[in-house]
Amino acid sequence: MAEKKNVQTFDAIMRNLKAGRYAPIYFLMGDEPYYIDLISDYIADHVLPESERDFNQTITYGSDVNMSQVVDLARRYPMMAEHQVVVVKEAQNLRDLTPLEKYAEKQVMASTILVLCHKNGALDRKKKGVNSLFTKIENIDGIIFESKKKRESELPAFIEGYLKEQKASIDYKSCQMIADHIGADLSRLASELDKVLISMPEGKRRITADVVEREIGVSKEFNLFELRNAIINRDVFKANQIIKYFDNNPKTGSIYAFLPNLFNYFQNLMIAYYAPDKSNEYALAQYLELKGSWAARDYMTGMRNYSGMKTMQIISKIREIDAKSKGLDNPNTGPGELMKELIFFILH
After folding, report:
1. 207, 247, 211, 206: which is closest to 227 by C-alpha?
2. Looking at the predicted structure, is the pLDDT value of residue 291 above 80?
3. Fewest 10 Å CB contacts: which of 174, 252, 276, 321?
């Protein structure tokens, strides 16, 4: 069993699993299916040797069973094995969780590893019955894990970490190009990275903008990363070049991908104006909680090119364009025209 601490981070859960420390119940839930799948797949692929799985491993779906049936499966004894594994996918379709609470309270089998994959959201611990269920699971050293969606700002770190595990690396621009192009779909992101890695020879696993352009199809000159840079540097010509390219190639740049990125930048730029020391990259990076001092350069450039008042106006304009892009007070202006309107407002 896992320690009484009921570790809930993905890394801690995986460390325990790889060390052979198993919990009797894993309740995996949340909006991000990527980590739920990694944990449940690892348990299904590694807890039992292949020769024991026919009789001791059950994989079922919440749409095909009810919780009473799941508990009946969990209460079986393993056949000539130390453990049996029961994995319930799409557990969000199980409506009545009462039998699970009773199982956790009085009937839990030490030899069973029960995994419930509850996707498309997390149960609210404040709701009636949920806190009681989770408390009983935790009391038997079970695991409650919430898999949350990554924010746009967290994607580069995910990409770098994923590649590091594969003994590969990536430069900052290429990392941001991939994050901007694919977004927060971690399964797709991992799949695209795998595709890139397969194309690279051993010993030369460094992803550059040329590799991203060739393997993923993102232009190294005309992309959201370069548009952001053009805006930061107030390069009107370059920004208009990229906007024109996006207009002619709609799939290459979307206002829906760009707005959050741009909003985050100007929001941080506004905060940067309140930094005690705005002349020192290291101090500014610490104040903004950035990854490194180099990341503060964009904000120092931004403060030279945009006043505090202009920054506030830009943030307000981004909110207005975001609302219009979702159809509010906007009967017929398309995304492309909205993007042009925003860029013109920012740069002039």
Report:
1. 247
2. no
3. 276
pLDDT in tens, 77-106: 999 999 999 999 999 999 899 999 999 998
b/e per residue, 301-324, with b = 16+ CB within 10 A? Answer: ebbeebeeeebeebbeebebbbeb
For 12-53, how does the pLDDT look when each residue is reduced to its tens digit (9 = 90+)? 999 999 999 999 999 999 999 999 999 999 999 999 999 999
- The C-alpha atoms of residue 193 and residue 238 are separated, in whole angstroms, by 29
pTM over 0.85: no
Q: How many whole angstroms separate alpha carbon 49 and alpha carbon 38? A: 18
- Residue 203 — very low, low, confident or very high, per pLDDT cuts 50/70/90? confident
Rounded distance between C-alpha atoms, residue 129 and residue 141, angstroms: 19
Give the pLDDT of residue 252. Answer: 76
The neighbouring-strand residues paired with 55 are: none
HEC sequence for the chain: CCCCCCCCCHHHHHHHHHCCCCCCEEEEEECCHHHHHHHHHHHHHHCCCHHHHHHHEEEEECCCCCHHHHHHHHCCCCCCCCCEEEEEECHHHCCCCHHHHHHHHHHCCCCEEEEEEEECECCCCCCCCHHHHHHHHHHCCCEEEEECCCCHHHHHHHHHHHHHHCCCEECHHHHHHHHHHHCCCHHHHHHHHHHHHHCCCCCCCEECHHHHHHHCCCCCCCCHHHHHHHHHCCCHHHHHHHHHHHHHCHHHCCHHHHHHHHHHHHHHHHHHCCCCCCCCHHHHHHHHCCCCHHHHHHHHHHHHHCCHHHHHHHHHHHHHHHHHHCCCCCCCCCHHHHHHHHHHHHHC
Q: Are 86 and 70 in contact (CB under 8 A)?
A: yes
How would residue 1 be classed by pLDDT, with cut points 50, 70 and 90?
very low
